[in-house]
């Protein structure tokens, strides 16, 4: 039976289209697989974004947390039982130049050097007393890190660190009347969809419980 030239042309075009689609799909799958392989095993941006640690002087009372975003750093310095009211400070959005940074706030200075997974720094009070500190990176899926809550006209901070088989927590609540108090983590230390459940015995307004969320 004779075929018309028009029908033969249509069939040829259909075969070519299927060929091109098949090869295009193969390339898409290959590129997707290559991308998956290239990402496997490489640290994500968040793997070294948050770092937590303590003062490295004798009493190690202060806790520190640092968040690194490209060439910008924010540091939370949290005082301990004897210093939460006097030493707790938020240093925000400092520039990192050549791996080094320095910020000033209310006569306090914080400076340090940023490595791939650690930061070594120095906090200096208005009287010139130095407090050395070091923080190390925490994984994206680790409960260790910095948690915050804006409340009573101020930002509450909580630093969570791993110590052997336990968790070490240290935080300070503050308000817009310059009052402060230590943060009490309600046991067990669990990260829920709302954050970590804490309590604060406020000096004037009484006890309150709330959740602090990842920074």
What does this structure look like?
The chain is an alpha+beta fold and 215 residues long. It has 2 domains: 1-42; 45-214, no CATH class. Helices cover 18% and strands 48% of the residues. It has 2 helices and 14 strands. The strands form 2 sheets. An 8-stranded antiparallel β-sheet has the order 4-3-2-1-8-7-6-5, with no helix packed on it. It has a 6-stranded antiparallel beta barrel with strand order 9-10-11-12-13-14. The relative contact order is 0.12.
Key terms:
alpha+beta, globular, 8-stranded antiparallel sheet, disordered N terminus, 215 residues, 14 strands
- State the total count of DSSP E strands: 14
Mean pLDDT: 84
Largest sheet: 8 strands, antiparallel
Q: Helix share of residues?
A: 10-25%
- What percent of residues are in strands? over 45%
Q: Which series of helices and strands comes N to C?
A: HEEEHEEEEEEEEEEE
Spatial separation of the terminal alpha carbons: 77 Å
What sort of overall outline do the alpha carbons produce when their principal axes are compared?
globular
Tell me the strand order in the biggest sheet: 4-3-2-1-8-7-6-5
Q: What is the count of distinct domains?
A: 2
